Fold Mitochondrial cytochrome c oxidase subunit VIc/VIIs domain-containing protein.
Amino acid sequence: PDVRAEGRELNEVNNVPSKASNERPPRQAFEVSFAHRIRSLHHCSSRLQVCVFLQFTVTEPRKQAYADFYKHYDSMKEFSAMREAGVFESVRPTGK
C-alpha cells in the first residue's frame, strides 16, 4: 500500500493517516498544558507565601511569648498559691 494522503501514509488496518513520530502536538494543547503548569506554580507559590507569612507573624511571636513566660515562671510558687486557695483536694492548705 503506497497510498498517500496529505503526504502521510495510510494505516493498513483502518485507512487513517498515521502520525509521524516527529509531529508536534497541536498548539492549543500546549497552551492549555502550559497554562495549567503556570496556575499550579502560582498556587504553590501563594501557599508558600502564606506559610512564610504565618511563620513570622504568628508562630515566632508565640514561641517568643512562651519563652519569655517560662523564663521567669516559678512552678513551686504557683503550686503554693493554688494549695493555699484550696484548689487541690489531696493537699491541705498550710494553715489548716
